[in-house]
Each structure stands twice: as C-alpha cells, then as structure tokens.
Amino acid sequence: MIDIRLENATLTYLGDSQPIFTNLSVQFTAGNWTALLGPSGCGKSTLLRYLAGLLSEKVNFTASKQAPPINELADNVAYMAQQDLLMPWLTVIDNVCLATRLNGLPVDAATKTRAMALLEQVGLDSKANVPPNELSGGQKQRVALARTLMQDKPIVLMDEPFSALDAVTRHKLQNLAAALLRDKTVLLITHDPQEALRLGEQILVMNGKPAQLNKITPPKSAIPRDIDSEFATIQQSILEHLGGHS
C-alpha cells in the first residue's frame, strides 16, 4: 500500500499567472478512500491528472514535500477519467484487457477469464465481443470501471466514475468498487455528497481561487455505508463548505 503526501504544494498551468492551488497540503492515506468534492472548475480534476502523471509538461509544480515523487507514481496508478476513453476499434473485452497489452504482456486465457469475471460483475458479460459504439453512455462507463479494476494497481484515481449511471446501478457499482478496491489508495472525485458519504473514509471539499481544501468528518461506520439520518447532518456541512454548490 502507498501513501501520497503533498506539503505546501503550488500548481500553475504554463502561461497562466493565477495558480490553481497554492500552499496546499494533503495526505491520501494508504489503503483508504478519499472523496474529493468541489464546484466545477475549482481544480479537482487538475489535482487528479497531476497525480496520474498527465500534466508534467503542462504545469509548474512546487512543493516542500511530495512523497512519493511524481515519477515514481506512474507505474502504481490506475486512472479513470470523466470520459470513458474506450478504444472504438476494440471490442469491450479487449478494452478491458488494454493495459495488459500496453504493458507488453500476453492477453492469455487467464487474463480473459479475469476480464470476463469483471464484466459479469458490472453486468456486461453479454457485451464482451461488441464494439463500444453499440453501448449506451452508462454501459461505456461500466466498461471503463472494469478496465480500471483490471489493472489492479495500488493507487486508483477516479474522476466521477459513476456519474452516468442510474441510481440503482450506481449503488451496486459503488458497493462493487468498495469491495474490489479494499486495501488500495483511492482518490474519488464526485459532485454527489451522498456518494462521498457512502465511500469516503476521508472527505475533502476543494473551493476558492486559488483552491484550498477543507476536511469533513465522515461517518464512523465502514464503507460502503448505508444512507441513514447521520448523512443529512453531514451532507448539510458539505453543502455549506461548497457554498451552495453540489
């Protein structure tokens, strides 16, 4: 398991004078889920993409401490973007196995068996051999989740992974992700306070320009949590920190 820690971090896009965040300190605890909320455009996805190693040549980044260094994170990260990013010329199962192929490893029978098991868990095993253009938006997002789970990395970064799903499917896949990503270091971006409360062992709200982080005390029960009366009180606190934005 891997801890991620930033101390006094400042990030500015090249060519911009206004930093996205400045003097930001945060720890993503090994083996825990962190839920990150905030209004659109506040810098949540920028932070996620930086940690995924996707912004190294596009930003100026400084920190008094970063552990582990960004160049040591790449091989340990599975990243699920807001967009499904499925390869349209590959079948569903080949998309799920894509990281294996990109790592130069054979997509053998054992690999495909594991991929099929994940597709079954997200309810899409019957679509294994069709191209993504035959899927709905929600189905594509479920394939992208299966692909992320397939990578089995110690750090998982997810940008609104359940946003295109109906309420029942979203609840089921939240439970599935919580079970399969147990003992991973997970950073989940969400606009949904209830989702943050169901899954967050640490809950952070990002807002302001430059962005700052505020901690919300989560419920004490284990994730994935059932919605109860305590949620309403904590959800109100989240909304107050968001300044009325959900």
TrEMBL record:
Keyword field: ATP-binding, Hydrolase, Nucleotide-binding, Transport
Family membership: Belongs to the ABC transporter superfamily.
Stored InterPro entries: AAA+_ATPase, ABC_transporter-like_ATP-bd, ABC_transporter-like_CS, ABC_transporter_ATP-bind, P-loop_NTPase
Gene: ssuB
EC annotation from Swiss-Prot or TrEMBL: 3.6.3.-
Classification via PANTHER family: ALIPHATIC SULFONATES IMPORT ATP-BINDING PROTEIN SSUB 2, TAURINE IMPORT ATP-BINDING PROTEIN-RELATED
Protein name: Aliphatic sulfonates import ATP-binding protein SsuB
Limits of the ABC transporter domain: 4-233
GO molecular-function terms, A-Z: ATP binding; ATP hydrolysis activity
Highest taxon, organism lineage: Bacteria
Pfam families, alphabetized: ABC_tran
Coiled-coil intervals, chain numbering: none
